[in-house]
Amino acid sequence: MTDNYLHQSNNDIEYYKIKMYRSNMDSIPAYPLPSGYSIKLFQENSNDEQKWAEITTAAGEFHTVQEGYDRFVKEFLSHKDHDLFPERLHFLLNSEGKYIGTAWAWFGELDGEEQGSLYWVSIIPEYQGRKLAKPLVTTVLNKISEYSKKCFLDSQTTSWRAINMYADLGFKPYMNTEHSDKAWQALSKICHRNFLDNEQ
Questions:
Q1: Lesser CB count within 10 Å: N end or C end of the chain?
Q2: How far apart are CA 191 and CA 184, in angstroms?
Q3: 133 against 12, higher pLDDT
Q4: pLDDT tens for residues 80-97?
C-alpha cells in the first residue's frame, strides 16, 4: 500500500489496483514543510513501531492499532533488511512533536528489476489538506535517489487525490497491470488530466 494519506474510498470511481513509476530520479521538486512541522527517521527502542501502527490505523488502513502493529511486525520486523529502518522509515511530526504521518523509502521488483519503492504514505485525517504530503513524499524520494535510479509505487483508483499528487511529482502510469486501461481512463476523467498521454 502506498497512499493512505488520502485513503478515502468513494463511489465516484470504480476500484482498480494501479502502479505508477519514475524512470529516473532526476529533477525531484522541492516542497518545504510549513512552519512548525518536521520529519524524523525511525529510531529503535522508541516505540516507533506503535506510532506507525497508530498513524496507518487513523488513516483508515487497519481496523485497530493492534492489527497495524501486527502487520508491521510481520512485514517489516522479520524482513532480512530490517537494519535499514533507521535510514528508510520517515515520520512527520507537528509542532508539539505528535506523530501525524509516515512514509517509507523502500524497494521492490518491477519488470524483473529491483527498484526504489515509495511505500505506505499515510497522514492522519485531521492533518490532510495542509500541504504536508508533498514535502513528506519528496523527502522520501530524495532518499530513494541515493540508492536507486528508478522508483515505483502501488495504489488504487479510489486514492485518486494521491494519484494526482504523484503525477505532479513526476510519476507516470504503469500500464502492464490488469484493467490498466479502464483504471487510467477513469482516473483521467476524475482528475481532469490525460494520464494516457504519459503511459508506459
A1: C
A2: 10
A3: 133
A4: 888 888 999 999 999 999
